[in-house]
Amino acid sequence: MTEAVLELDDVVFRRRGTDILRGISLTVRAGERWALLGPNGAGKSTILGFCGAQTHPSSGTARVLGHTLGRVDLQALRHEIGHVNPRHPLGSPLTLREVVITGLTATIELPMRWAPSADDLRRADAAIDRVGLGHRRESRWPTLSQGERGRALIARALVSEPRLLLLDEPTTGLDVAAREEFLETVDGLAHAEPGLTTVLVTHHLEELPETTTHAVVIAHGEIVAAGAVDEVVTTEVISRAFEYPIRVTKADGRWSARAGRAARELATAGA
């Protein structure tokens, strides 16, 4: 059995006297590619905060890359975690290459009085080439399309050679073509970096990469189901989590959902 990358043991997270998460227990192992699913407000972002060593549980134990949160230098731990957030708060017109280099410094802007080494530049260029953006490496961030920015953020996350990659609703704002190109890039990582563990957060089944191996579905701060993706992403589980009749189908390795009257009719026809 491969090593555990993320372990949550009876985790509770409380904010202003209200339980956001209750009794969350989950183990993610090296090389697994997880989807974290659930409706808005279910607690997905809080769980991702544990994964990224950004949030401490109110009670219970959270271990990331073998380290217990609360007993480790979080800044040092974050250097081993890549994070792709489409809401990247960059304020300067850095080049794509400079944005990727900030993955080495774990900052949003380039640090003052700091210059990348030749090896830093080589690693940045290799990461850029890996996501197919070599022709855009000197382009300024404001000139990049949303799809290019998404792939650039993957390169930024990978440049530090992380053991854990977090993707926080990474296809937000992308059109269909850009979304598919992004998902192809994520699927390519599974083949090129088989030991890399990924956790992708979404509430749209159409945004799950084909290479997803496991899923956890949460609702109202509790786990509804967790395990192998084909056993978790089902009509029954998704309908229960979203509290609405949703028909889940899978074709050519990709999932889709239909809801409302159409879902009820399909469910009746399949009964």
Specify the oligomeric state: single chain
Strand order of the largest sheet: 6-7-8-3-9-10
Overall structural class, as computed from helix and strand content, comes to alpha/beta
Head-to-tail CA distance between termini: 39 Å
Uncertain residue segments: none
Helix residue percentage: 25-40%
Number of DSSP E strands: 12
The biggest beta sheet reads: 6 strands, mixed
- Per DSSP, the total helix count is 9
SSE topology string:
EEEHEEHEHHHEHEEEHHEEH
Coarse morphology? globular
Global mean pLDDT: 90
Q: Over all CA atoms, what is the radius of gyration?
A: 19 Å
Query: Strand share of the residues?
Result: 25-35%
Notes on the protein architecture:
By secondary structure, the chain is α/β, with parallel strands linked by helices. It has a domain at 90-161. It has 9 helices and 12 strands. The strands form 3 sheets. The chain has a 6-stranded mixed sheet, with helices on both faces. The mean pLDDT is 90.
